[in-house]
Specification:
The chain is α/β, with parallel strands linked by helices. Helices cover 37% and strands 19% of the residues. It holds the Pfam family FAD_binding_3.
């Protein structure tokens, strides 16, 4: 609250304006904390909390807070924070137990408290402030309360009655996930946040454990539906459990399966039974003077933080919004949602990535322990390589060493950051892991590339990328997307590309590749002014073809290809591959994604044929494999062959990640050396889940299941993300697209930023004078302290009665 806002609020109190009458549905931490803050900020407010349970009844065990949240609580109500601080278990390490090893990363900062203790603190504070808390009382409906109160706060949990009563107002979306988990505790005192991955005979099981008092630790057991059923838990779950009753048989089996991690200690229960996590989202959190708070409004998977933490942050934000103008509740609720929603949605995106990683953990199990541990720590994309280096430099140094010697056992170079490690695809050696992604420049005339393409490719090659790729290059005139697309179907086109490959080879240490494409139903369009596709050329265009006569959006429907025509198109690809070799390319990539011809054969949304080239995935693969075989036969043995795919169509009934794994496996069996993993652009009604690195999990899954080299692409723009992806084993190469358009020397600048001068970040001779970071403003600072800064102790462990303790041995 600004000083002006505080003055305005004081003025309202001084003149005796009537204050708010507030009802809170739900006496959990979120509801009680909001009630306390609202009353503290204006004691004249009439605040009533309705809680259906007794004051001493609660489910769950420990609650974890981040330092950021605690800073807010400290400032908002020091009295509450002081009571919490006295009861906290604090630590800064994360331990990962995997395949007999314990991997430790420090510098994280956690505080946990028993849920019952937290409730007692908040209940006491509410009583001190004069909040009317009515225990064992069923609240009137939110609609009834709204008629007699200025504000109704519905903090009534994930199964919110308020939300269910008015779905048309809130627009709820409940995403019930696949994993099963059970909330337990143990009398074993863990001294750090602990992830346990146990590879049982039934499948992998994971434990999320952390201390919350001097006597107890939270112990959440989670596993996939498959593992859960294999172990027979589904037979126990069928029993009808009363409220408050725990699934004793499942707890007994968990204790047996996880006994080596309990060291003879007990598992403790509190309404413990199997649950499937529901991610709750709402289009709106407001309905008139009613507002949803905490789990009623949103949930985020427990693997990245507690729902209680989010609910208390909500409470603080809502109370702050009311202080600005509590005479206009509608405006205050609007301000609250506008300011709070972006924070929540960011958390939910991170939680979704974390949740999905644990759902598919069986595909990561098998990685070497150092890589698995890093993969787990960075699963949400919120924690990254640089972030962990800031927290615990020694941890990252150890990982860098491991990665370097695993990749280059005969190297004499000091371990660089992962993106500067060399890589070999077939007989093509790349000096580093960065690929300048295929980008269409739409600058060709009659398929002949000119200076704009030369400038882009040469700029990226001179700028340090290990491999630079041309934009989509048509295998025939009819296979162009626009009249300005490049081609490799005429001799003069070969000569134009030879000019570029010679420049790259003679002046840089980069490899260069060409992406071969047939437009299919996306052909005969104008150069796009915005987006990825233009409009139809109409009479100025040419006939388009596809597996089925299904149009893309407003474009004309393509002609369905006759089976006899497919061999000719396959030969067009083979002829273009031979031309690519003549033109001096090191790598060929076949475009089989993004809704172009080969992609439309693979997707059931665009391939509705009833012959041998449609129907089952095996049949839909038939023509793309025919093309791959033709190209593999034409392209010199030992030269790398890549294929780009759309791993998922982002539309119901389309290609799934399981399909993508099967497609990649079939491609590998037919001689493909690497899969460039993109997604979507197959149908215009797609609904991609955009976000930083949003396509990387598809590359990770294909790499893990097929064992083929994968290239991650899509919304990757920082060297931090590139290093994170590589070190976690999610991909082998990183394709950078738009960031290379922004900065053709992206790779060299990343090297300069960290002072790397090895072969993977070698500056070309004409740029060598700029290899050091330019001088910046500033001055040398004098030493004005008698003693230097004390080195930060980043490895704190929880010890009851002793607070935080000493550095832990690795």
């Amino acid at each position: 609250m600004t000083s002006q806002e505080a003055t305005a609020r004081s003025a309202r109190v001084d003149v005796g304006l009537p204050s708010l009458k507030i009802a809170v549905i739900g006496g959990g931490p979120g509801g009680l904390y909001f009630a306390a803050l609202a009353k503290q900020l204006d004691p004249r407010r009439e605040v009533t909390v309705f809680e259906r349970n007794a004051a001493d009844m609660t489910f769950g065990f420990g609650v974890v807070f981040s330092d950021e949240t605690l800073d807010g609580i400290t400032a908002a109500d020091p009295a509450i924070f002081a009571e919490m601080e006295a009861q906290f278990a604090r630590w800064s390490d994360i331990d990962i137990h995997y395949r007999g090893q314990v991997l430790t990363s420090g510098g994280h900062g956690f505080a946990a408290i028993e849920r019952r203790t937290l409730l007692n603190i908040l209940q006491t504070r509410c009583a001190q402030l004069g909040v009317d808390v009515r225990y064992e009382t069923i609240a009137p409906t939110a609609e009834e309360l709204a008629a007699t109160h200025d504000l109704v706060v519905a903090a009534d949990g994930v199964n919110s009655v308020t939300r269910k009563a008015r779905p048309e107002a809130y627009g709820p979306d409940l995403d019930v996930r696949n994993c099963r988990y059970m909330w337990l505790a143990t009398d074993k005192i863990f001294d750090a946040f602990t992830f346990i991955v146990a590879e049982t005979e039934f499948g992998p099981m994971q434990v999320h454990a952390y201390p919350f008092s001097s006597e107890r630790s939270t112990f959440i057991v989670e596993m996939s539906e498959k593992t859960w059923r294999n172990a027979g838990f589904d037979t126990f779950d069928a029993e009808d459990l009363a409220v408050g009753q725990s699934d004793a048989k499942s707890v007994e089996l968990c204790a047996g399966l996880l006994g080596e991690h309990l060291d003879g200690h007990q598992l403790l229960t509190n309404n413990s039974r199997w649950i499937q996590f529901s991610t709750v989202r709402n289009t709106s959190w407001r309905d008139g003077n009613i507002v949803l708070l905490g789990d009623a409004a949103h949930t985020a998977h427990f693997s990245i933080g507690s729902g209680t933490k989010l609910a208390m942050e909500d409470s603080l934000a809502l109370a702050a919004s009311l202080t600005v103008d509590d005479r206009d509740v509608g405006q205050a609720l609007l301000r609250y949602e506008q300011e709070r929603r972006p924070v929540v949605e960011s958390t939910q995106r991170a939680a979704q990535a974390s949740l999905e990683w644990f759902e598919s953990i069986e595909h990561s199990v098998g990685q070497a322990p150092p890589q698995f541990g890093f993969n787990l720590l960075t699963r949400s994309r919120r924690v990254t390589y640089d972030n962990l280096r800031d927290r615990d430099p020694e941890y990252i140094d150890i990982l860098n060493d491991w990665y370097h010697w695993a990749q280059s056992p005969d190297s004499t170079e000091q371990p660089p950051r992962p993106m500067f490690e060399p890589y070999r695809i077939a007989n093509t050696r790349l000096k580093n892991r960065i690929v300048a992604a295929p980008v269409a420049t739409y600058s060709a005339t009659d398929g002949i590339v000119g200076d704009p393409e030369l400038a882009r490719l040469a700029g990226a090659a001179l700028g340090g990328a290990g491999l630079v790729m041309t934009g989509m290059t048509a295998v025939s005139a009819a296979g162009r997307v626009t009249p300005a697309c490049a081609g490799l179907y005429a001799p003069e086109q070969i000569f134009a590309y030879r000019r570029i490959t010679n420049l790259v080879h003679n002046n840089t240490t980069a490899a260069i590749g060409v992406q071969l494409n047939h437009s299919g139903r996306k052909g005969a369009t104008t150069v796009p002014a915005a987006g990825t596709l233009g409009t139809s050329l109409g009479e100025k265009g040419w006939e388009t073809v596809g597996p089925s006569a299904i149009a893309f959006g407003d474009l004309p429907a393509p002609r369905e290809l006759d089976a006899s025509e497919l061999e000719g198109i396959a030969e067009d690809f083979a002829r273009a591959a031979r031309a690519a070799d003549t033109a001096g390319f090191d790598v060929v990539e076949i475009q089989a994604g993004h809704g172009f011809l080969l992609s439309t054969f693979l997707s059931p949304l665009t391939n509705q044929r009833t012959d041998d080239f449609g129907g089952s995935l095996r049949n839909r693969l038939r023509f793309p494999l025919q093309v791959i075989d033709a190209v593999r036969a034409a392209w010199p043995k030992g030269k790398a062959l890549l294929v780009r795919i759309s791993a998922v169509d982002w539309h119901p009934g389309g290609t799934t990640i399981d399909d993508a794994v099967a497609i990649a496996r079939a491609f590998a069996e037919h001689g493909v050396d690497a899969i460039d993993v993109s997604s979507g652009e197959v149908v215009p009604e797609e609904r991609p889940e955009y976000g930083r690195g949003y396509q990387t999990p598809f590359a990770e899954r294909i790499r893990a299941d097929v064992g083929i080299t994968t290239i991650a692409v899509g919304a990757i723009s920082s060297d931090d993300d590139a290093n994170s992806i590589l070190l976690a084993g999610r991909a082998d190469l990183i394709a950078i697209g738009r960031a290379h358009l922004h900065d053709p020397s992206w790779t060299l600048h990343a090297a300069a930023e960290v002072g790397y001068r090895g072969a993977g970040g070698q500056w070309p001779t004409l740029y060598a004078a700029g290899s050091a970071k330019p001088p910046s403003a500033g001055r040398a600072r004098p030493q004005l302290a008698l003693f230097g800064e004390t080195p930060q102790d980043i490895h704190h462990r929880w010890r009851p009665g002793a607070g935080v303790v000493t550095e832990v041995a690795r």
